[in-house]
Amino acid sequence: MSLFWAVFVFLIFQRLVELRIAKRNEIWMKQQGAIEFGKEHYGLMVAMHIAFFVSLMLEVILFKDTANQYWPVILGLFIITQAFRVWIIKSLQRYWNTKILVIPNAKVIKSGPYRWMKHPNYLVVTVELLLIPLLFNAYLTLCLFFVLNQIILSIRIPQEEAILSQWTEYGTEFEEHARFIPSLSKKE
């Protein structure tokens, strides 16, 4: 199996596992009284991620691109990114989800990478949308989906932060944290 198909199958399997975890967590959170927000853009986000995989596959197949000449380095960065993703999911535990679900007055989690930044999960997705196409010289996919992801995040992140601030102590707990750049402030 080529490197492309190995990575592609891994990613599809990983996303299916994540969706299963998210659904299980969603059921638990709603049993705890969680409220769902962001339905109006969630479908767009899902469609963008599906289109990313289709675009990646088509670009690699149609242009018969091979792995980037620096593929070992890029693949290493990708593996580190996946370890970071697992750390994020383990840190949030039952609160990790692909949807915006908020349990009113729930304690805000500030463990794992959340000790230093507000949105490590969005950082991981953004880095992936750069590394995966770069790994296979799929530059059209890289440019298009990097821009689309930024558009969606420009809608989702402010909405998520406003909702969390309204329903939890998020605003107070994360006031000194940057969105994506780790904050090493003394106040923990």
From TrEMBL:
The chain crosses the membrane at residues 43-63, 70-89, 122-148. GO terms for molecular function: methyltransferase activity. It is found in: Membrane. It is a multi-pass membrane protein. GO terms for biological process: methylation. Keywords: Membrane, Methyltransferase, Transferase, Transmembrane, Transmembrane helix. It holds the Pfam family ICMT. The keyword Nuclease does not apply. This is Alkylpyrone methyltransferase.
